[in-house]
Amino acid sequence: MDQLIPHAGWRWTAWHARIARERDSLEQSVSLRFAFWDACIRALPAFALCSTRAWMYRAAGCDFEHGVTVQGRLLLLSKGPVASRLHVGEGSIVAPRVTFGLDADIHIGRNVSIGPSTALYTATHPIGFGSRRMQLWMEGRPIAVEDGAWIGSNCVILPSITIGRGSVVAAGAVVTESLPPNSYAEGNPASIRDVLPFGNR
After folding, report:
1. Is 125 one of the catalytic residues?
2. pTM of the complete model
3. Which residue among the candidates 7, 16, 107, 125 is catalytic per the annotation?
């Protein structure tokens, strides 16, 4: 019986530490201001009240310029002040179900169009030994989508990427390297297939 008491104490200490870790992660991840507005946004139908939805995201802390159109609920992922890391320029259109992984800032320029179910992730992890290839510490690297670009549906934009001004990323592309202005890119990994005309207009 005496041998069980230390074991029970150790289990209680481990359980208490686990609860503390979970509590800390919840405190770092939840913003009551954002949670309130996100709940309101859930009630809006997709492709309707797009300016109202953009206003709500602005009220939740996102840096949205006036004239932004948000066609459906967005998924913003990270810890801390997640909303303040998303910057969207005037005249841009963001479709429903777009995911923004905001471990670093994402800058969307003016008159950018982002298609449904696209994901932009700023987090990366170093590669470790075979026993655990993904190391646990994370590094945030910003993403920039310059003015006039068009990103199709179901694309994935990886950390440190810049999509150049006036570029087009075809649906389903996985962008692993930055694109110069006026590029047309497609595929996995995305490669430049053409240079688009009228880049100065």
Report:
1. yes
2. 0.85
3. 125
